[in-house]
Design goal:
Elements: H1 7-24, H2 28-34, H3 39-47, H4 66-79, H5 81-101, H6 104-115, E1 121-124, E2 140-143, E3 147-158, E4 165-171, E5 181-187, E6 193-195, E7 209-220, H7 231-267, E8 269-270, E9 273-274, H8 279-307, H9 313-338, H10 349-358, H11 366-378
Helix pairs in contact: 1-4, 4-5, 4-7, 4-8, 5-6, 5-7, 7-8, 7-9, 7-10, 8-9, 9-10, 9-11
Bound molecules: acetoacetyl-coenzyme A (CAA) and flavin-adenine dinucleotide.
Length: about 375
């Protein structure tokens, strides 16, 4: 497989890096402490085309490939994973789902403003009783003729309060199991929607995570995505690509922490020499670099397969489980390389360590990725 990056890829990578350093780095510690959503930064990202990167320009997107998306996600995540999760949800769950399976009318009405970054979207699958076991949907979308009547609760929803458009997964025919589930486009300001308090989280504290309650919410039938009963397949197909985004987020968190560890190890002196000259530290850095490179190659492989319209479910799950476990390990070691300084906020690595943990949980836990991989390799 050819991993040669084009001039355009390098340009996008640089644009994302410049944005992260100039717009995200200032204030990242404060936003984390205050759990502050990066509203201004997300607006600017949208104006630069980073919220609809892979969407066809005729729908307001940047028309780029998935490799460009991986590169941009890595650069943004090196500095601020609270911003990159919003970017990931909007690009790979919301825009991709709408562009791939939406009607022309749905694309004109919802995809265009989402791809231009004028508004953001959210993806509502998880429930208090249905996380990994995603077919056990309790939220109902009762068929009332020309509309669905929605009741139930979704939780852990990224962009839950700030999004204008929700892609909601709900059960219509309980007797049909996964084939009775529908995907609906719901406008956040619809009567009957109540947004819960923002979750107070370990990491990605700036990101906007909420429960969403639906009480007799009417959703027009024309807002259903795909055929009746397509909702679960819609969610699974969408998540297959989403997992490439989260894998790239994990890659960025790991490489951000690694770069800081290398820099620090060359500055800090102990026992008369730079700590980078102690073999124990060199070995840590060597292992970090190796695991990060392997994560990057897995992310790029999954992205290339998606761009070539091959099945990327397996490679996306492999990238996600490997990169997220790498991120947790690398960030923990980066704190260790920094000694006591790594334990305080000014040096950034403790935040990256806290941010890394979520990449092993959302968009399918590491255990779920192993289920997907296991089924794929065993047939
Ligand atoms: N593509 C197409 N169809 C798929 C599919 C895929 N990738 N994966 C499953 N399906 C289909 C199956 O073929 C099956 O259809 P048929 O009955 O017609 O064969 C149907 O979906 C049900 O599949 P399974 O029997 O495999 O379902 P399962 O109950 O065993 O669950 C699972 C499988 C992989 C564990 C799945 O439930 C899963 O992925 N769970 C994790 C949920 C998740 O990732 N949530 C993330 C929420 S979004 C989020 O987290 C965003 C964020 O943080 C930022
Ligand atoms: P559970 O499914 O209850 O799992 C608990 C533990 O059991 C895990 O370790 C899991 O791996 C393990 N487990 C479960 N089943 C199995 C099995 N069959 N075999 C082996 N181990 C198993 N969801 C959305 O829909 N949209 C969002 O935007 C979104 N954003 C999120 C943001 C944050 C910050 C968080 C924390 C979560 C978000 N989620 C979102 C939800 C996330 O996808 C779920 O938390 C995740 O899928 C796990 O579900 P759960 O929390 O119910 O854990």
């Amino acid at each position: 497989m050819d991993f040669q990056l084009t001039e355009e890829h390098l340009m996008i990578q640089k644009a994302a890096r410049d944005f992260a350093v100039s717009e995200l780095l200032p204030g990242v510690i404060e936003r984390d402490e205050k759990q502050q959503y990066p509203a201004e930064q997300i607006k600017k990202l949208g104006e630069l085309g980073f919220l609809g990167m892979m969407v066809d320009p005729k729908y307001g997107g940047a028309g780029l490939d998935t490799v460009s998306y991986v590169l941009a996600m890595e650069e943004i995540s090196k500095i601020d994973a609270s911003t990159s999760v919003c970017m990931s949800v909007n690009n790979s769950l919301v825009c991709w789902g709408l562009e791939t399976f939406g009607t022309e009318e749905q694309k004109q009405q919802y995809l265009v403003p989402l791809a231009k970054g004028e508004i953001t979207g959210a993806f509502l699958l998880s429930e208090p009783e249905a996380g990994s076991d995603a077919t056990s949907q309790r939220t109902t979308a009762e068929d009332k003729g020309d509309y669905y009547l929605v009741n139930g609760t979704k939780n852990w929803i990224t962009n839950g309060n700030t999004a204008s458009v929700y892609l909601l997964i709900a059960q219509t025919h309980a007797d049909k199991g996964s084939k009775g589930i529908n995907a609906l486009i719901v406008e956040k300001n619809s009567p009957g929607i109540v947004v819960g308090a923002k979750e107070n989280k370990l990491g990605i504290r700036g990101s906007d995570t909420h429960s969403i309650m639906f009480q007799d919410v009417k959703v027009p039938k024309k807002n259903r995505i795909g055929e009746d009963g397509f909702g679960f397949k819609f969610a699974m197909k969408t998540l297959a690509g989403g997992r490439i985004g989260i894998a790239s987020q994990a890659l960025g968190i790991a490489s951000g922490a690694y770069e800081l560890a290398v820099k620090y190890a060359k500055q800090r002196k102990a026992f008369g020499k730079e700590i980078s000259q102690h073999q124990a530290i060199q070995f840590k850095l060597a292992d970090m670099a190796t695991r990060i490179e392997a994560s990057r190659l897995l992310c790029l492989k999954a992205a290339r397969e998606k761009d070539q319209h091959l099945d990327y479910t397996l490679s996306g799950s492999m990238a996600k489980v490997f990169a997220s476990e790498t991120a947790m390990w690398v960030t923990t070691e980066a704190v260790q390389v920094h000694g006591g300084y790594g334990y305080v906020k000014e040096y950034h690595v403790e935040r990256l360590m806290r941010d890394a943990k979520i990449t092993q949980i959302y968009e399918g836990t590491s255990e779920v990725q192993r289920i997907v991989i296991g089924r794929a390799i065993l047939g």
